[in-house]
Amino acid sequence: MGLLSKQNRESNGHSSQTVIAEGTFIEGQLKLTCHIQIDGQVKGNIETDRCVTISAAGSVEGAIRCECLIVNGRFLGKVYSKSLQILEHGYLEGEVSATEFTIEKGGVFLGSSKNIKTEEVVPLESVKKRDKTLPQQSKKDAQQYA
Prior knowledge:
The chain is of the alpha/beta class. It has helices at residues 6-12, 124-130, 136-144; strands spanning 17-20, 25-27, 30-32, 35-38, 41-43, 46-48, 51-54, 59-71, 74-86, 91-103, 108-115.
């Protein structure tokens, strides 16, 4: 069965996929209603209700909010996803908020992770509004434990 066969379209309700080709550089915010495969470079935020795949040749720097994220290339930033997979050649550095998080042998994760319930996944705009600067005293307290 082909990727875009009739049976596949009927089962998942979506039949399209956006591909950022190798050698392509995009800077900005991407809002999609389909799967996206990144073989090139993206600097910015990606938001979709489907899956994001970063191939071995691909790289992303920014924030991603999606149903599932598959990393086989390089990602630097924040992830908000139900499912996250770092494959054998994948490299992820940053903050992860996910319900499911797996790392294959050879995959690299540097950063922090938080296990979330599906209903806790929030739009990127909401996250920016919640970020707050620590009071000066809190910074001093934190430094004494570093």
